[in-house]
Amino acid sequence: MENNRVCELLNIDYPIFQGAMAWIADASLAAAVSEAGGIGIITGAAPTEWVKEQIREAKKLTKKPFGVNIMLMSENAEEIAELVCTEKVSIVTTGAGSPGKYMEKWKSNNIKVIPVVASVALAKRMEKAGAHAIIAEGTESGGHVGQLTTMALIPQVVDAVNIPVIAAGGIGDGRGVAASFMLGAEGVQVGTRFLVAKECTVSQNYKDKILKAKDIDTEVTGKSTGHPVRVIKNKLSRTYAKLEKEGVSVEELEKLGAGALRKAAVEGDMDNGSIMSGQIAGLVNKEQTSKEIIEEMFKEADERFNLFGGKHE
């Protein structure tokens, strides 16, 4: 896309990132998204050896740039921060903390650093720390969420920083892309729709749950622990919500949630697993390749709104 700072910064065709979904975002999905002209992301919320394997596998599947997401509060964050340098990864996205202490090292290894933020204050801090761009994520997203909606967050972050802003949270079709650009974003990050991409290796039960979801089928649990998470309602989320209301300890709640995402994503347990999903799930109703998803979204944005000067690449 012409005159787009995100495309120019990363040398890509479409300013779209695939969300870094734990237990889900592997080499298969990341490489497919990158190959289609966007930026695929491998989750770093996994054992270091697994992340290394996925990086190497992705390199076999695509010669195009892809990224790794690093949860800075995770136990092996230091190891993965080192790994992305030795494996020559192009892009790092970060969450749960500040990447400040790694910034110099990453930049000296030609890594573009793009933190995920949920507030203006954090966006300003990340720009000051030397971030190349920012992913501003609204509360409509799946998984760990902030408080502000995408509609409210994006224009305020855009006004607060000079680096490019990528909008995330509640974006699932061309209308969402167009809306994000109208709010001042220069790119989008999409998670839930890529969950049903043909190259996504998540359990088919999980995909079916997304495809059948309605607009009000998600809820946020874990507010009392300080780590709210958006999921599709099921037996686990109802149990969790009930215990939260009863005021059980954080330890008990964490015990209930331990390993729950793996149960859903890998084992396909739709009762006792944590089915992380954005509010956009009600819009997602078909399985497609990553290429079809990306091209359809940008074609729709272009045709409906002439947003990109009538030039859909």
Automatic annotation (TrEMBL):
It comes from Clostridium uliginosum. GO terms for molecular function: nitronate monooxygenase activity. It holds the Pfam family NMO. Gene3D superfamilies: Aldolase class I. Nitronate monooxygenase that uses molecular oxygen to catalyze the oxidative denitrification of alkyl nitronates. Acts on propionate 3-nitronate (P3N), the presumed physiological substrate. Probably functions in the detoxification of P3N, a metabolic poison produced by plants and fungi as a defense mechanism. It comes from the Bacteria. This is Probable nitronate monooxygenase. Keywords: Flavoprotein, FMN, Oxidoreductase.
